[in-house]
Amino acid sequence: EGIAKTAKNIEEKGYASIWFPDHLMGWWPQSIWTPEIVGGFATYSPHTFFETALSIAAAASASRNLIVGSAVTEPIRRHPAMIAQSYATLEHITKGRCILGIGAGEKENVEPYGLRYEKIVSRLEESLQIIRLCWNSKRDELLNFEGDFWKLKDAVFELPPLKERPPIWIGGVRERMCRLVGRYGDGWLPFLADLEMYKDRLQLIEEAAKKAGRDFDKITKGLFTSVIIDRDHDECLKVMDTPSIKAKALSTPAYIFKKYGLEHPLGKDFYGLTDFVPSRISKKEVFDAMDKIPLDVIQETYLWGTPDEIIEKLEKFVDLGLEHLVIWNETYFGDFGKVKSSYECLGEVLDYFK
Q1: What gap in Å lies between CA 294 and CA 249, rounded to an integer?
Q2: Residue 179 CA: distances (Å) to CA of 145, 171, 203, 308
């Protein structure tokens, strides 16, 4: 009911899309998920996630024109042929409004559940090849694929498209991931707040697209970013200095700390997506680590400020080619009382870009 209500509400407000994570575990350690630390959120678990494809179906059924997508799924917990089937089915359910957002995956959703988290980019590339193979197959065609991770032998895929297959948007900012976008992606959906990195990675994607004989201009340039927004600039700084936001910042990559001459409190080469498992970190370890996270580092990981400041920052991304923005509002994770006001501020950003 909540998914349906939210989808209907944001469509009425004028948003273009709604996106669902594919997680079993969230980014916050439950060891600090208490009322005195995270406030009103303590009544919920940080690890509450409905299944992604079913959530997309629920949102699509409650809306008319809203684009619905995954941000993002991965091919470790699911065989790529099953991903192909799920999203081909969603193309029918949504009447062509769904997007398959896919990436290499996070350790927190894989390794604790008994699956191997290794060679994840190579696995993703094979999976993209298989998904395309399934979606491009003809009737009575036998599918064969011999890879390092997956094998198809006399397989079939005969679920026809309603009109055309869903676009595939690939997440990730590392070099190999960006080259996969250029070779296989219909869109790019990085989780990012750094303008210079966005510019640099777009160049990598363009190079890879040209090398593969693909049209770079036809790849949708997206951006998935966490936002802290308030009408008062200084209030944003206060929100970013709260325990819940600082705990989330433990997933920040080590290279951002290095920019300030610092070492990540969880390791000098720590990278959140591939190293962080929140369920394994104690309350003491969280607080010891949070004491070593300066506000400068947190500011690097968020799109933050007043509505006008955020609009100004986003315009620079638009100048580089940004076409589709996905916002995760984390303001009220730092101050639960700012739920309404933060979305009102985001409404001003929405109205500007509409």
Answers
A1: 10
A2: 22, 11, 10, 34
Query: pTM of the full predicted structure?
Result: 0.97
For 316, other C-beta atoms within 10 Å of its C-beta total 12
Question: What's the rounded mean pLDDT across residues 107-121?
Answer: 96
Reduce the secondary structure of the chain to three states and give it as a string. Answer: CHHHHHHHHHHHHCCCEEEECCCCCCCCCHHHCCHHHHHHHHHCCCCCCCCHHHHHHHHHHCCCCCEEEECCECCCCCCHHHHHHHHHHHHHHCCCCEEEEECCCCHHHCHHHCCCCCCHHHHHHHHHHHHHHHHCCCCCCCEEEECCCCEEEEECCCCCCCCCCCCEEECCCCHHHHHHHHHHCCEECCECCCHHHHHHHHHHHHHHHHHCCCCHHHCEEEEEEEEEECCCHHHHHHHHCCHHHHHHHHHCCHHHHHCCCCCCCCCCCCCHHHHCCHHHCCHHHHHHHHCCCCHHHHHHHCEEECHHHHHHHHHHHHHHCCCEEEEEECHHHHCHHHHHHHHHHHHHHHHHHC
**Dihedral sign of CA atoms 150, 21, 112, 114 in order:** negative
pLDDT tens digits, one per residue of 206-250 = 999 999 999 999 999 999 999 999 999 999 999 999 999 999 999
With b meaning 16 or more CB within 10 Å and e meaning fewer, what string describes 143-173?
bebeeebbebeebebeeeeeeebbbbbbbbb
Residues 297-331: pLDDT tens digits?
999 999 999 999 999 999 999 999 999 999 999 99
What end-to-end distance do the CA atoms of the chain give, in Å? 28
CB 332 within 8 A of CB 37: no
Residue 182: alpha-carbon gap to chain centroid: 18
Please give the single-letter amino acid code of residue 340: K
Query: Above pLDDT 70, what percent of the chain?
Result: 100
